[in-house]
Amino acid sequence: MKLLLLVNASASSVTARxxxxxxxxxxxxxxxxxxxxxxxxxxxRLARGAANDGVDVVVALGGDGTLxxxxxxxxxxxCALATLPGGSTNVFARTIGMPxxxxxxxxELLDALAAGSIERVGLGSVNGxxxxxxxxxxxxxxxxxxxxxRAGLKRYxxxxxxxxxxxxxxxxxxxxxxxxxxxxxxxxxVVDDAYFTxxxxxxxxTYLGNVxxxxxxxxxxxxPLAAVTLRTLRFPTMLGFVASALRGGRWLRRHRLVDYHxxxxxxxxxxxxxxxxxVDGDHLGDAESLSFRWEPGVLRLVLxx
Length: 305
Hints:
305 residues; alpha+beta; Rossmann fold; Tumour Suppressor Smad4
């Protein structure tokens, strides 16, 4: 096969030595070219160019942001996406069953390629941008924004940095005095007092260390989206939500101040003034309206056996 190894050399877990080992391993049975990203949006353009040039598989070595860009470049084409974990959390790679070590994951990838384990999967889209695992609107997007302001620390203190940013955001970087937006579902349900929404294409929502935070078990690559909307940000309740998510999330989804909506093929978010949002862990700024769609079978994905 013709492969493009797409590398984000600045990602938390990517090293020059590891890149060489991975390239040599892939080159043993495949024709491999290498390209490095240099700026935001570059991975999408490189992936789209590879698809246009007849490459069979783009192997993305980087964090979730790099994977998201590559998926946006490949969606709707016959070129497949393969994932190698190179970031601090690697939510999507771990969700589909890849090891969290990039060298070990390379062995799994080679086995999958040899077996032809490539399937078409569904993605979510928000305002025309595809997402692999989730979009966060409100509080968690503000947390991601605080993390990105300290991006140089992610390589050395990934998970502790997110925990610190969550507390800092709750205490001083997000307006908790009023609801920030409404969520309108296709079935007519309207949640008009939302503080924080996560629209999930897969589950878990993220990982805390080696433990997944499960909030939407009905979401999956072959199923429509699931939306989880919190109608409070009270501190004790938020701690309870996190504790519940660590144990599967059943209490969270049944809470009277949570709207859990699986099976979503579309939904709309309408903000009461600009509200932050993040896509697959990348803060994309503020928006006043967000339109979500589920796009089945839009991406060819290499899956571990």
